[in-house]
TrEMBL record:
<dbReference type="GO" id="GO:0005886">
    <property type="term" value="C:plasma membrane"/>
</dbReference>
<dbReference type="InterPro" id="IPR052058">
    <property type="entry name" value="Alcohol_O-acetyltransferase"/>
</dbReference>
<dbReference type="GO" id="GO:0005635">
    <property type="term" value="C:nuclear envelope"/>
</dbReference>
<dbReference type="GO" id="GO:0008080">
    <property type="term" value="F:N-acetyltransferase activity"/>
</dbReference>
<dbReference type="Pfam" id="PF07247">
    <property type="entry name" value="AATase"/>
</dbReference>
<protein>
    <recommendedName>
        <fullName>Condensation domain-containing protein</fullName>
    </recommendedName>
</protein>
<dbReference type="InterPro" id="IPR010828">
    <property type="entry name" value="Atf2/Sli1-like"/>
</dbReference>
<dbReference type="GO" id="GO:0009410">
    <property type="term" value="P:response to xenobiotic stimulus"/>
</dbReference>
Amino acid sequence: MDIGKVIGLEDFFSKRSIEKIHSSIYLAIELSELPTKGEWIYALNKTMSQYFKLRCNVEWDLEADDIHMKLITAENGTPIKYEDVIEYVPWKKLEQDEIQQIFQNYHFHYDSEHVAWKILVLKECNTCVLLLTHALYDGMSLVKIWQSILQNLGNGSMDNTEIIYDAIDKPDKQFTSQHPYELIPTPWSWKAKKLLVSQLFKYAPSTIVKPNKNIIQFPAYNFKEGLFAKSNPSQFERYLKNDFCLHRTHINNENLTKTLKICKVHGVSFTSYLAAVLVIAMRKMDPSAISGNNLQISIPINSRKFCQKSLNLQDSQCEVGNFISGSTLSYLIDTNEDIWIVAGSLQDDMVRNTTSLMGNTVQEAKLLESISCADFLTAKISEDYPGQTLEITNLGFQNFNIEGSKYHVKSADFATPQGISNVAIYSVISTPNDGLRCNFSYPKNYKVPWKTI
């Protein structure tokens, strides 16, 4: 059942996923013990009832360059079964090789009667990996969905069925794909910018997508050789190598607490501190290994609170979906400030972007509505290099444990695949039992200089 056209942000992410330029995002949790089949079915049934997007997919009209969200119902779909979303894999651990396999092999079927998410279960290490398409969800959606599943695990069991959801729902008021961004008014100044962007992109697309020449890039890395598995892919045949190198960092609770206290003394967040570490590390790199002097770090911003405040929405209306707005931190590496001066400067920029300039970041995301996202995607990957150097996605401190439940989350692990917007990515999450875990992924064919980070 068609429940509406997606917004520009979802349109871009959908086309990127459909063309296999992005596979999925994941959040893995290590449990004290694994649920039974019946408990999985019960918990997932409750969670799918709570979040209707888990029963959705996207469909598109290529000729009209149109993408819509659709709800899988009895009229056009089949029941959602256990085997459709739960897959047991024989891995004994979740490390670089296994993570590469996830991003290389698990692509969702779009324009179909299948849901665009899956849970991989590693019995050998009691680890469960929730995969979501970035077309409909963001990193915080992973958190919200896991919290709902864990809330329902152990509360019941459906033992005599293979069906998780029978797809018999009829439309009601909750079935709407209308994104809060659609309801946020666009000021006249941004309407003028939309018109300008549409004309610039139509007649001179490189002015929109071409990276700034001063941005730090790595001459040994480019899209054609370092990112894409095919050198000259045709439409809908592009896909990424995802053969990245992965450096994993674990900071236990004791050391994390110490680090956060030091950050607090200096008035900065951990994300700003991590960004400052990257600035200092770039100074130590061999000058022949990089070009440019402006380090640009992409920080995806969670716009849920802004949408709730602007539109007087309930928390439940913004829990699951794609609420990304972009923020870029810039810093010239050819300076001599110490790490806390750098972190303080970056913190000031980040605070502005998440407070006084938050409305602007949402309006920037809405600029995608003024252009063809398919053409924009083609233009971006036609360049040799991405528009930013690095990305930091920090899901923050998350408590998944439910009081009285036998299922305790021992640790969590968050990761994203290689992308077209940056060279390397930091993916971070913290939990009360385990502290902080960070995955730093960078191109395989450009390994040596990253050792300083």
